[in-house]
Specification:
This protein is of the alpha+beta class and 730 residues long. 42% of the residues lie in helices and 22% in strands. It has 22 helices and 26 strands. Strands 14, 15, 16, 17, 18, 19, 20 and 21 form an 8-stranded mixed sheet that branches. Strands 3-13-12-6-7-11 form a 6-stranded mixed sheet, with no helix packed on it. InterPro entries: Cyt_c_assmbl_TM_dom, DsbD_gamma, DsbDN, Thioredoxin-like_sf, Thioredoxin_domain.
């Protein structure tokens, strides 16, 4: 423990007795007495100058990885003027503590200071210096290293008129991290004399810290709900600013580790941030913008940006945007591949029958059928995209497949697929409102539109290759561009049907309609019934076991309604109007009985405590940002699997490429941990992690090696691909 540093004036004001000349004469008792006073004087001086009232730094407290103390900018303190005081943390080499926003992980220091005696006051507000940015793989921290000074202003007012001492007491807590993180704390005390303020030996530390503190920005700051932050000012130009970055005061509003694309023009600096949860609900944005010039000098500016509309020609000119064209292409290819994804299999029953019927129909009917199917697909994708954008604007963290995170929605889709299966089995026939003069044509056209809608509804929880980047771009860009990207996604899904209708030669190779179609129609009802079982399982994970009773009861009532309605259709020519009306009424009552369960389902959906979550196999850990950071800091590679029970592609990947013996053995051999994030129900941490890596849905796979850059894997996995990826960095 080091002694407090004393001002030079105090040292010179205290004189020690010198040895008199007579002491040099042997036997001189008076000289001996004089020399005996020397140790007494030294001891007295030590006692005087070690007293807290003369110190501008408290006694130091040594913790596991730091030395903590209180320091003040003056040795004395006057009434009715704030005292500049600071928590000083001298950290071990390689260790760091955090800013008020720690970033992706960590916790900021906290301190409570109270003063009594001649003067009294209290404070907890730290005046934060500008932190360093510390990147660790895919995570970003805002932190301090070395000798850390965290200043505060302690307001003081007169209290005890009889005392001339001010007693200052503080309790501080902080987190220090290297490869592991350790919480530390200390109780600190300091006593100062009341009097005119005089600079202390630690005053230079305050001056140095003030130079590392952000100053109020002289520039107007505006941000948009999609993550664009802009500073405007006459002296901003490419010649005065070469780089810039933003550190928000609030944690979790942007993807901290994501690249902040910077556009510097004459009169403005524009930063493209990657928003996360609830960013669109912000009405103001505070933080530090650091401007760096060509010489490497940095200016830290404290900004308070207001919400506004920003016009950026590079973002609004769609034709000139290479990024937009790429996202359009990715969306189209992703929609095309979506036809082959397992999540679309349940609706292949209707498509197969429609395509077979289309092969030998009239040309006009072929084109109308394909066009109506395409309208259903493209319109549904566009509507889904608009819904997600609207949800973002209201502050919701909606991602791709968000609707399947609701047990109510899952239950309604389960009922819908069950009704479709009954239709395919011939329990009842679908009748639609007239579209034109031909009942036969209007029946098929409505079926085609409905097939397109159902294709999107069932396919929406899945993410095909190329879709992830396209959807993330659609949701973060201008609304018109986003809706166009969603329309391109729908066009890709509808394209095979459109090609068959456009080129008759393709349609002629299809088999002729016949009796076999009836059996195929009935057989293909069973994939829909299997989908109902899957959706019941998903609903159970989200809403608890009791939800099975509600959904099962609804299916019984729907089955009754379909059967009674089918009887009325089958015997409509032999039944009297009264009996036919009674059957229709009974079918309607059964249908209304099923619908009456929806409010109860909604209440069940609002009870997350009953949710069970997906069961993790042996050797797989639940995802959390803290666990990810701990594993990576310990020198292990980490494979992140973001999944959901309603994502069939996710489940297939786990069964064939992740939870298989050869891959599990490779994880063990390569010292790689597997973290699985369950996004079945809404999880804000997983949503933020997905947004941080430019994704808005699952599946998402990320391998973070012990050393090296993270590797993003495609949405469809094979055992060989996984083993090759985790072995490539060894």
């Amino acid at each position: 423990m080091s002694l407090p540093v004393m001002p030079f004036s105090r040292l010179t004001a205290f004189s020690l007795p010198s040895a008199p000349a007579s002491m040099q004469t042997k036997g001189n008792g008076r000289g001996l007495v004089g020399w005996l006073t020397l140790p007494v004087a030294i001891l007295a001086a030590a006692l005087v100058y070690s007293h807290p009232s003369a110190a501008a730094e408290s006694s130091q407290v040594k913790t596991g990885h730091s030395i903590a103390s209180l320091i003040t900018a003056s040795d004395t303190v006057g009434a009715n003027s704030p005292l500049h005081i600071a928590l000083r943390l001298q950290l071990q080499n390689g260790w760091h503590t955090y800013w008020q926003n720690p970033g992706d992980a960590g916790d900021p220091p906290a301190i409570t200071i109270n003063a009594d005696g001649a003067l009294q006051g209290s404070t907890q507000t730290i005046q934060w210096p500008v932190p360093q940015r510390i990147r660790d793989s895919s995570l970003m921290s805002y932190a301090y290293t070395g000798d850390v000074i965290l200043p505060l202003e302690l307001p003081l007012q007169s209290a005890d008129q009889k005392s001339d001492k001010v007693n200052i007491m503080a309790h501080a807590s902080w987190l220090v991290c290297e490869h592991v993180c350790v919480p530390e704390e200390a109780d600190l005390a300091l006593t100062l004399d009341k009097g005119p303020p005089a600079p202390s030996a630690q005053a230079t530390l305050f001056e140095q810290t003030s130079q590392r503190t952000a100053v109020p920005s002289p520039y107007a700051a505006t941000f948009s709900s999609n993550g664009i932050l802009q500073l405007t000012g006459k002296d901003l130009s490419p010649s005065s600013v070469s780089d810039a970055w933003f550190m928000p005061e609030q944690q979790g509003k942007i993807a901290e580790a994501a690249e902040q694309k910077t556009i510097i023009r004459n009169g403005s600096v524009t930063l493209h941030l990657k928003p996360t949860t609830n960013f669109s609900a912000l009405r103001s944005l505070s933080g530090i913008v650091v401007l760096k010039d060509k010489a490497g000098t940095e200016r830290a500016l404290q900004i308070h940006a207001s919400l506004g509309t920003l016009t950026d020609p590079a973002e609004n000119t769609l034709a000139a945007s290479a990024g937009f064209v790429q996202q359009m292409l990715f969306a189209f290819i992703g929609g095309l591949i979506l036809n082959l994804m397992p999540c679309v299999f349940p609706i292949l029953a209707m498509k197969a029958l429609a395509i077979t019927r289309l092969g030998h129909a009239a040309r006009r009917e072929q084109i109308l059928s394909a066009a109506c199917y395409a309208v259903g697909v493209i319109g549904s994708f566009t509507l889904l995209g608009a819904t997600m954008m609207a949800a973002r604007l209201t502050g919701s963290a909606a991602g791709w497949g968000f609707q399947f995170q609701s047990p109510l929605f899952v239950g309604m889709i389960c009922w819908l697929l069950f009704a479709m299966a009954l239709n395919l089995l011939g329990v009842f026939a679908f009748s639609a409102v007239s579209l034109n003069s031909s009942p036969h044509t209007r029946h098929h056209l409505w079926n085609d539109i409905l097939t397109g809608v159902l294709a999107v509804v069932v396919a929406s929880p899945c993410t095909a290759p190329f879709m992830g980047v396209a959807i993330a771009g659609a949701l973060s860009g201008p609304p018109i561009a986003g809706l166009t990207i969603f329309a391109a996604l729908g066009l890709g899904l509808a394209l095979p049907y459109l090609l068959i209708a456009t080129f008759p030669s393709c349609a002629r190779i299809l088999p002729r309609p016949g009796a076999w179609m009836v059996y195929l129609r009935q057989f293909l009802a069973f994939p829909l019934l299997a989908s109902c079982v899957w959706l019941l399982w998903v609903a159970t994970l989200e809403g608890g076991a009791s939800i099975v009773v509600l959904l099962g009861s609804g299916m019984v009532l729907l089955g009754l309604a379909a059967w009674v309605y089918g009887l009325a259709q089958t015997h409509q020519n032999t039944l009297s109007d009264r009996k036919r009306f009674a059957l229709h009424g009974l079918a309607l009552l059964a249908l209304l009985g099923a619908l009456s369960l929806l409010p109860v389902l909604r209440q069940q959906a609002a009870a997350p405590s009953s949710a069970q979550g997906m069961t993790l196999p042996e050797g797989v850990e639940a995802f959390s940002t803290a666990r990810l950071q701990t594993l990576h800091a310990s020198g292990k590679g980490v494979f992140v699997d973001m999944t959901a029970a309603w994502c069939i592609t996710c489940l297939v990947n786990e069964r064939v490429a992740l939870d298989v013996p050869e891959v599990r053995e490779a994880f063990k051999t390569q010292n790689v941990s597997l973290l699985r994030g369950d996004w079945t129900a809404h999880d804000a941490a997983i949503t933020a992690f997905l947004r941080q890596h430019g994704r808005d849905g699952v599946p998402f796979y990320l391998f973070i090696p012990a050393n090296g850059a993270p590797i993003t894997l495609p949405q469809v996995l094979t055992p060989g691909l996984v083993i090759k990826t985790i072995s490539s960095t060894r």
